[in-house]
Amino acid sequence: MKKLFALMALIAIPVLAGCGASGSTTGNAGGGSSAASQPAESKAAEPKVGEPFTADMGGGNVAKITIVTAQFVDSVSTNQFAPKPKAGKFLQMDVLWETEKGTTKANSLYFTVKDADGRKGDMELFGDGTLGSGDVPAGDKMRGFVNFDVAPGPVTVTITNPILQPAATIKIAP
Q1: Which residues contact 128 (CB under 8 A, 6 or more apart)?
Q2: What's the pLDDT tens digit per position in 46-92?
Q3: What is the pLDDT of residue 85?
């Protein structure tokens, strides 16, 4: 029953979040300076495996996330009936989720992966030691694995906030 509720929530949240999205943007109507003519601002360093990075989770809540390790493996479970990867391997990320400010909610469903060709990886929820789901108050931590069935090679991992808006992106080339 819990799995069915979680699946329904996972489907409903993006639909509801999309209802408030605006399809139009306003551009520079002339006369003024454009963003292209402005000097480039210094870009923050790209997050890397093994180094913590922050993600604004909304409402003043800030998570500090570390992908401690990321590796391609043949299996994410010792269970003899565990599924085999369809894309060749599983990307197994050891994730440390901390809260820097407020209270954040750790959840493996906030992670998505795309391979170098733009194909989304399939999340494998039933691996051993997966990242738990729940509140993480400031100063607390949660750690576990987040697993995806994805073609081996460079991938882009996106972490979203609770309303599934992108909060952080990290490129991984294990």
Answers
A1: 76, 77, 78, 79, 145
A2: 899 999 999 999 999 999 999 999 999 999 999 998 999 999 999 99
A3: 95
Q: For residues 166 and 131, give the distance between their C-alpha atoms in angstroms, rounded to a whole number.
A: 19
Domains along the chain with CATH numbers? 46-172 (2.60.40.1240)
pTM here? Answer: 0.74
User: What are the structure tokens assigned to 95, written together?
Assistant: 């994730």
Mean pLDDT of 142-157: 97
SS3 label, residue 78: coil
So what's the pLDDT on residue 46?
A: 85
Nearest CA among 117, 125, 58 for reference residue 92: 125
Instruction: Give just the sign of the alpha carbon dihedral 51, 174, 43, 169.
Output: negative
CA 148 to chain centroid, in Å, comes to 11
Beta-bridge mates of residue 18: none
